[in-house]
Amino acid sequence: MTTTSANARFVPKNIIPTPEQLAIQLSQRRISLVHANAGAAKTTTLALRIAEALARGMAPAKILALVFTDEARQILQQRLLEIGVARHHLRQIRIRSFDGFATEMLASAESVTVPVYTQAEELRPYVLEAIERVSLKYAHRYEYLDIRTHHVALSQFLDCQQRLKASMSFEDDDLGLNVEDVAINAKATLTDYLTTLEYEALRNDSYEGVVFRGPYDATYDLAQLLSYEAHWHDALPTYRLVVADELHDLNEASFSILCALLDKGDVYFVGAGDKDQVIHGELGADEAFLLDRFKQRYSHARSLPLTQTYRHGPHLAFAVEHFKNKLVSSALPLHTQIDTAYYDHADLDAGGLACLKAIKGWTDAGNTLSGCTVLLRDEHQSVAVESALLTARVPYVAQGFTPYLMRREIVFIRGLMALALSALADVPSHALRREMVGALAFFAELDLSDDDLVLAQNDIAEHPEMLALFYSGQILRTAPALPAKRMSQALEYLRVKADEGLAHEVLHEVCNILDFSAVAQRLFVHEHQALVIKKSIAGFIRVAEQKQVSVRSFYAWLIELDPSVKAESPHGQAVRLECVANSKGKEYPHVILPYLHKDEFPLNTVTTLEEENLFYVAVTRTQQQLSLLVPKDEAWRSPFVARLGINQTWDRSNQALASNRLREKAQPYVQAMTGSGPSRFRVQEPARSGERVDLVVPFAEKDEAKALGAMWDPGIKRWYVPAGVDAAAFERWLSSK
Questions:
Q1: Chosen CATH of 314-395+569-650 out of 3.40.50.720, 1.20.950.20, 3.10.290.10, 3.40.50.300
Q2: Of 42, 77, 144, 226, whose CB has the highest number of CB atoms within 10 Å?
Q3: 10 contacts 291 by C-beta, under 8 angstroms
Q4: Spatial CA neighbour of 32 closest among 352, 267, 277
Q5: What is the number of helices (H) and of strands (E) in the chain?
Q6: What is the pTM of this model?
Q7: What is the pLDDT of residues 45-91, one digit of tens each?
Q8: Conformational region of residue 188, where left means phi above 0, alpha means psi within -120 to 50, and beta covers everything else
Q9: Pairwise CA distance, residues 637 & 633, whole Å
């Protein structure tokens, strides 16, 4: 039977559902899998399905919505309100993250409250005890165990054990393999695998039960119980409708819980995801869940498309279609501009300057700095970009990573310079002084307790002249012989060359003396992390080369550019710098993608599916303008740029845009809400002087709107621009009249 709006019991506010959305809203299949493109209003469409169930008489308490983050949970709640679901119904619908749902289920059966630790510092004592157990139990059996206890090694272990549990790939005894083969099969080092076994033994005491939980441990624990204890299936609530967003982030543990819920009673399921946004393979995410695993388990599962994007216009939609070889369309009457700028890839500083030029072009056209986002493949790429912005006094914010002047490896080099020049007191920031002490201790491989290190950091930050005593009394006296010797040689060289040599030449030699490449590989177990460290250092030295000054002058220049004293925009505006992997689920008016050459994107010239998906995520964050920064030398350009097929799809895009604009004239466009931003294409009347202007601000952007001067009306629960304030800076949040 053909689904039409006449079949729908629920008629939403603010939007007119597309035929694809309507088919999902009215789907009566037990298992409906929505294959959605980026910006295709997945969350709003799931909200429509929930609202339709309510309109047909389903009890709100019988509906469960599962997401992966608290932010996604809040956005789904917001979408339900926006389309017209009553607040009293919304309060009864169970909307949870997978881990939140698992936590509630486990708590209902546990007699005591299990502590939940979210910070690595809280988990550190347990990790250290697990490592000690491994050393005592296995060191005599396996000579090649790599026992390390510094902060980075602990952080890397926590990531590894989280992946092992998310993929349910450890304790896999069914294969009849020895522990070494099991570790290889789980793609973990033997040390990390054995440490995970001991860590889990500490966490799940055979007598006391669960002692504590870390991030996502609740999901793993519930999945384990469902696998081995049948009564837990009976303990799960029975729902009539389950919806799940971002299915591309599913892993084995969350899939196990979801299937257990779907196996109970007469339940309908609608899940939405985009196989091309699988970028978290290290956490067990896999496109197989969306493409195959559901259909293998539930033969009656049906796939439904959600192809039309509401984020950008046809020019980018068809380019994405060409890149991913899948159907993508846009009904927006918007020409999303795709610009390609060329730079000399051999001069990596040119990439930062090209970014600066793209930002200037955007603001010269009357747009705001906050509408501009530079998406990086990896954080080491920010060095030249940040330097260009700092030099030009362009405000920026680093989202999800540390600005390069505050990264541990850079702070270490700056700490050496401070020691050599006896100039720690010149650093105005006490926080930076503390970080310098911590970085010196880390790279000297000092065996200091956390309390002793914090005490030393605080004392030296307050009395910077004590840094020399810390060096002579701690580093030279107690550090391992090799790093202490190399640091001593590097310092002596810095002192001699402080005024007579160019900073970049001196720092290059300092890194050779320290053998920094070997140090990075030793301290940072994961090869990729060591590579990022080395690239950050190389970028830092290139900044020094660009200045062509002495070590002393370069040190002073760095202090001037301290992030705490950088220029402020008069309206709180700032360019956003963010890594692509952290941008999923977000959207920005102007996206700049720098360093699109072969050994940067894709990384190390390796074109893997996950690299393709990262690029897909990057370009699809765009709303109004996409700037691609590529090498002048065609041989060095990222293959991803050509695969967008911008020229091949140009004529078709123009035709679609003309058609969309004709349709807009005949009937003003009403946009289906996207997952993270308001409509940009509603017909608007200019605000009259002295009038308050209402806004539609996504939860994730509330702090940004507030910083610009927006105010919150608790009565109608809406953000607004106060009367008399220019609304130009709030353009992307303007609501419909």
A1: 3.40.50.300
A2: 42
A3: no
A4: 267
A5: 31, 19
A6: 0.80
A7: 999 999 999 999 999 999 999 999 888 899 899 999 999 999 999 99
A8: beta
A9: 7
